[in-house]
Amino acid sequence: MDQRVHVPIDDPNADTEWNDILRKHGVIPEKPPSPTPIIEEALQEAIKQAHEKRLEGKDLDELDELEDDEDEAFLAKYREQRVAELSTITQASIYNQVYPLQKPDYARDVTEASRKAYVLVHLTSSLGTNVESQLLTELWRELARKFGEIKFCEMRADLCIEGYPERNTPTILIYRNGDIQKQLVSLRELGGQRTTIEDLQRLLVEVGAVKDNDYRVSKSRTTESAPKTIRNSTKTTAMDDEDDDWD
Predict the structure, then answer these.
(1) What is the torsional sign of CA 202, 119, 126, 238?
(2) Residue 233 CB neighbours (<10 A)
(3) CA angle at residue 232 from 228 to 235, to 5 degrees?
(4) Is residue 43 pLDDT above 50, yes or no?
(5) Omega before residue 32 within 30° of 0, cis
(6) Is the pLDDT of residue 245 over 80?
C-alpha cells in the first residue's frame, strides 16, 4: 500500500519557487488573488464619485462663485440642472404651510389628498407641557416652507381619535395613495427632544417623499455624522395600536 509522503510546507501563501511547484502539482491550492487591486479600484471609484458630485447641494449663487475654479461647460451643465430642479419644485410647491385639520374633513384633506402628494399628519398633544409635540410643531412649519410639494397637517390627537393616549403624542402619520405608509409614535426613533430638521429630512428621503439627491437635502446634510436609519414601523393606523397603548 502506498504511503502518503509528507511534503514540508512553511507558508502555503508565500511566493516561493517551492510553493509554485506544489501548486502546479495540486499539493497546495492556488494562492487567492490579492485584495489590493480591488481595494484600489474601489478607492478610485469613490474619489471619482466624490469629484463628480462636488457641486451637489449648491444653489445658483454658490455655482456663480465657482466660475473661476470649475470648467465652464461643466458648471453650465450643473447650473442648467439646478434651474430645472428649481422650476420643477416651484411648480409642485402648492402647499407651503401647515394645514389645521377638522375630523369631518379628514378623509378629504388627508386620505384623498394623498393620492396627489405625500401628506404628513402631526397628531399633537393636548397639553402645553409636551416638549416633543411643541418641538415638532416648530419643525413642521419649517418643513412646510421648505418642501412645498408635501402637505403638512396638524390636529390634536384626542380630537382625531377619541381616547388616544397622551403618552403616544406626538404621532406622525405619513400618507400616500390613500393609505398610511409609515407611522411614528413619539419622536423616540428620530431623536426625542433633540430631533432636528435633518432627522425629519432623512425620514422624508426614507419614505420616498423627497429624493436623496434633492439639493435642499444635500445642502443641509451634515457630513460629521453618519445618517441615521429610522427603524421600520409596521404599516398600520393609529386605531390598530396594541391594547397596552390604550392603557
Answers:
(1) negative
(2) 15
(3) 140
(4) yes
(5) no
(6) no
Amino acid at 69: D
4-10 long-range contacts, CB within 8 A, separation 24+:
none
pTM for the predicted model, two decimal places:
0.58
* Cβ–Cβ under 8 Å, residues 91 and 148: no
At which residue does the C-alpha cell 395613495 appear? 177
**Dihedrals φ, ψ of 160, to 5°?**
-80, -45
| Three-state SS letters, 14-77 | CCCHHHHHHHHCCCCCCCCCCCHHHHHHHHHHHHHHHHHCCCCCCCHHHHHHCCCCCCHHHHHH
Contact 128, 94 (CB under 8 A): no
Does residue 26 come out as left (phi exceeding 0), alpha (psi in the -120 to 50 range) or beta?
left
How many Å apart are CA 38 and CA 200, to the nearest integer? 37
**C-beta atoms surrounding 155 within 10 Å:** 21
The C-alpha atoms of residue 153 and residue 170 are separated, in whole angstroms, by: 13
Given a cut of 80, is residue 184 above it in pLDDT? yes
